[in-house]
Amino acid sequence: MNFDFSDEQKQMRDEARKFLAEKCPPKAVREVLDGKAPYDKALWKGLAEMGFLGVAIPEAFGGAGAGHLELCVIAEEMGRANAPVPFSSTVYLAAEALLLAGSDAQKQKWLPKIASGEAIGTLALFESKGNPSPKAIKLQASGGTLSGVKKPVPDGAIADFAVVAARTGSTGRDSDISLFLVDLKAGGIEAKSLTNVDPTRGQAELTFKNAKAEPLGAAGDGWSILTRVLDRAAVLLAFEQVGGSDRALEMGRDYALDRIAFGRPIGSFQAVKHILADMYVSATLARSNCYYGAWALSTNASELPEAAAAARISATQAFQHCSKNNIQVHGGMGFTWEFDCHMYYRRANATALTLGSLSYWEDQLIDRMRKKNAA
Amino acid sequence: MNFDDTPQEAEFRATARKWIDANAPKQYEAELSKSSLGRIRLEKEEIVDVGKAWQKKKAEGGWACLHWPKEYGGRGATPIEKVIWQQEEGVYGKLTQPFQIGEGMCGPTVMAFGSEEHKRHYLPKLASGEHIWCQLFSEPAGGSDVAGLRTRAEKKGDDWVVNGQKIWTSGAHYSDYGLLITRTDPNVPKHKGLTMFFLDMKSKGVEVRPIKQANGMQEFNEVYFTDVVVPDHQRLGAVGDGWNVSLTTLMNERMSIGSRLATGFPEMFEFCSNLMTDDGLAIDDPATRSKLASWAVKASGLKYTSYRAISSLSKGERPGPENSIGKLVSGSMLQDIATYAMDLQGAAGALTGAAEQEASGQFQQMLLSSPSMRIAGGTDEILRNIIAERVLGLPGDIRVDKDVPFNKIPTKGR
Question: Which residues in chain A have Cβ-Cβ distances shorter than 8 Å to B3?
Fold first, then answer.
C-alpha cells in the first residue's frame, strides 16, 4: 500500500510552501483584507510563473500536465498561506469545468490563459439563498444569450470569464439545466462587488442582460457536469481547508508555548493542551479523508462522489474547529484586528459555504452511501 | 498513490491466505463475524480453549507472533507483513484476544530485558498459546498515575516478597504468568523506586477476584498478593529501573497498528437505514443524517489514518504520530452513537428485554459498556496530554510529586 504522496509531490509542496512564505506573508494578505486591492496581482503572476496555475492542465493547453495529486499539494499550501487570489474559482471550478466539458476550441481559448495568469475564471451557480439545486436555477438562456442574476459568484467582479448554469427547459428534471461559457468583458454583464465575511476572497453579483453565451457541454447536461465539477472542487478546496487547519493549529500551539500566565506557559495547562489536542485530532481526520479524496480524484474512481463529500465535510469541520479554537487559545489578543487569527476564522467560515453548506454535503454523503449500499 | 501491495507483499498475502484457508476453524466463522463490539463469546465453547487451539496451529505453521524472531517462536516478519497477516486472519483474529497482551506487551518486555535462558524458555510457549500472560500494572491508587503504585516487593535473600493489590487485570483468571511492576524503594521519588518482575500466577499467595463492572459483566480482575515469593532471576531490568522497563511495555501497546477499533458506525448506519419511525425511515430525517454524516467521516478518517500508517510501514518507515488519535475518537463515538440510537427509539429505547429490544439490544449494551472505552488503555484525558506533549511539543504538566520521596506524597485529598 502506498497511500501517500510521492517524494516528487512532497517536494512540490515544499516548493509551494517556500514560495508562499516569501510572496504571501500575512502582511500581503492584509492588503486585500483592508480593501487596498481586490486581489494580490503580484502573487497571481508569481503563481503563474511557478507553473502552479496550470499544474493540472495538460501541456497541449499550456499547462504543466502534472496532475491532480500535484494540484492537491499546492491547494494545501494556498490554504495554509490564506492566499488572497482567485485560485479556487479559476483553477478548481472554471478550469475543471472546461476540462470536463469544454470543446477543443474552448479549452484552447481559455486554459492557456488560466495557466499563464492572463485570465481569471469562475463558476456562476447560485442565485439566492440555498444550496446547489437545479430548481434554484432561474437564469434563462435563449437564442445564445443569458438573462438573469447570479449571486454570490466567487471572484465575480475580477473574473474575465464565467461558467454559468442556466435554465433551458421547464420539465422539472435535471436536464432543464445547461452550462454556458461567458466572456464577462464582452458586454451585457454588470458586476457588483458584495461585501462578505472574508474580504480576502471576493464575492459578486453578476447581472446578465441578453449577454452573449456559448454552450459548454451538451444541452441538458448542465446539472450532471456541475455535480462532477463540484465533487472535484470539493476535494481540492478540502486540501485548502486542511492547510488552513494546520496553520491555525500551529499558531495556537506557538502562542501557547510563548504566552506566560500564572507564572507558566499557558500550553502547560491541561485546559489549553486539550483544546490543542482536539484540534490535532480534527485536522488529522480531515487530512486522511482528503488523501482518500485525492486518490479518487486523481484516478477518476467511481468512489469519487462519496470520497469528495467525506473530504469536504471533514475538512470543513476541521477548519472551522481549528480556526475558532485558535482564537480561543490566543484569548483577548486573538480577537484583535492586529493578530492574524481572524483571517483564518473568516476564511474557514466563508469556505465552509462556497460549494454549498455543510448540511448540504452531509445530505449528499448519506445519499451516496445509501446508493452504494443498495448497489 | 495507490492501495496495492508490492510484489513481495502480494506474495506474502497469497501465502498467508492459502494457509488460513486450509487451516482456519471455519465452524466458528459465522459466530465470530457477528460479534463486533466488546468481548467475544462463543455459544458452546470457551473462547480461551478455541483460541488456544488456533494459536497452537498457527505456531506450528510458523504464523504466531509474526514479528518476533524465529528462535523465540515468531517468524521474523516485517511490520507490514504483520499487518497483512492481521488483514487476512480477519474474524479469526478475534480468537487471539487472550494472547494479545502477552504478544503485544509482556513478550516484548521479556525480549528486551530477560535473560537468554528465560527468553528461550518462556517466549515460544507464549507464542504458541501454551501459556497466557497478563499485565499487572494498574492499582486502586495508580491508574492514569501508574507510577503511584503501592504494591511492595522486598528483598529476602535471593528472593523478593510481594504484598499488595493490582486491579483491572484482563485475563488474570486464565493467565499462567504475569508481568508485575512493584515498588521496591518508597524512600525515593515515585518513578525511581520501581522494579519489574514476572511471576507464575499459580504462586502461593496470589489471589484473583473478578470485578463486577458497571455494565454487569465480569471481564477484569483484582489480583491480591500476600507474601508472594518471586525469585530474583525473574526480575526484568535493574532494581529501581522499573519505570523505564514499563515504558517499553507501553510503547508496544501503542504500536498496535492495523487492529481496527470499533466505532459503532457500520451498525448505526444499518440501524438508521432500517428503523421506521412515525415520520418515516430514520435515515431520511435531516437531524439524523447530519449526525450520521459526522460519524461517517470520523470512521473513514480513522480508516484512512491507519492506511497512512500502513503505507509508512510498507516503505520501511516508522509511522507518524497520527495513529494516537484512534481510541480517543472511537471511544466517544461509541458512547454518542449508543445514546442516539436509543433516542431514536423513544421511551422504548430503555428496554432491554428480548421481546422489545431493537437491533438485538446492541446499542443498549454499547451504552453500558462504552464508558470503559474512554478509560481503559489510557483515559481520554491522558491521551490528549500525550498528543499535546509528544506530538505538539507542549510542556509537560507541573508534577508536584516529582521530586518528593514516595512515602511523603499525600494519600488523601481531604
Answer: 1-3, 295
